[in-house]
Fold this protein.
Amino acid sequence: MARARASAILLCALQCCVLWAAPSAAIGVWDDFSDGPARSTARTDQQPQRAGADDSSTTLSCPTAPRAVPLPAQLPAEIETILSGARGKLDQMWTASKAAGGSAAVVYGDRVLMTHTFGSTASPQGGHAVDGDTIFRLGSVTKVFTDLMLHRMAEDSLLHATDPITSLAPEYSPAWPGAANGSAPTPKGGTLRDLGSHMAGLPRALPCPSGECNYTTAEIMQVMNNWTLLAEPGTKLTYSNVGFALLGRLLERVDAPQYSPKGELWEDSLDKLAQVLGMGNTTARAPTDTGNLAYGLQWGQPAPLVDLGWGNPCGSVYSSANDMARLLSFLLRDGAARDDTKAQPLDSATTRRWLRDRVLSNPSNLACDNCIEFTEWGETWHIMRANIVQMGNFSQFYIVTKDGGIPGYNSYI
């Protein structure tokens, strides 16, 4: 497996976020559209419970957290000290890992508190210093955009996230797990929400012999219908790139005339969504102008910018630190109605539910002091619970994350 040398990393913790870049080895995320989650101390010997499942031995409580308040124009000395320390840690990490280049941003609400860059774009033409607009591949962070499209259409009542997959794909019919033993499918089978939360029972990998997946949905569906699901939909987490790719392609069958007319390719809908969010350097396809593209390295050579074809909705997006800061500002915005501003594709209340909804929980990781544990799984989000006793009334809080990797790059929200 090739070692990544340049990557785009994004970290989001409720009301405070940071974006940076580093090689995969420096943060311990996995390859193959990696979704660790990074830096989690989660136990791997237990399957998390479905959210809402009965567990009499565990009491689930809602951690408290302070509400975001406006910061003064001149940041307090304590925050400046923290940001200075973050710059130093980033430089140490990038230097130790021999990263070709990186870019970082810290976001609080609509305000970018810090930007920080490192290294060069490592272009075959010689490259130049990385800046906040330098473009990286995001890998599986692409899934955030695909899930955002689903929630946008649901908010417009064009579909329901709990609609069965067959509502958009009547031809979808992989074999039911346990069918040979007489187990019958549930009335709905898998849902669109199951596809968007890795709960549809589908396998991880795209059904393509190489990275390029130049097939149609009809051709992929023929392959999938010869599969047996790994688990009954909605009951078990089976991380699935193919499930997210299928979700993105099925959304092409929904008619949203104002922003995604029926039949429009997911790639074109993604580009229009990026424009709404003010993300001018974000695209689903390799940028035509590569002058400010960061080149990830494999075996000392620029990593190929493989187009995932049919699989693009699970891992193809290109973006920059400045653009991802705009996405974070949207995610963190509170009390904004749909279209209050140009960059508001969802009502803030919908966004909050999206960030907080859980499909699985792992109560075995809840009972810890002074630790951060991977405890829950949301709709594309990894959710870690922090319990830092020294923080008093605000000792418990959640960290909502999403990471990804594609040859030469890594990403982490």
About this structure: Residues 8 and 342 are 26 Å apart (CA to CA).
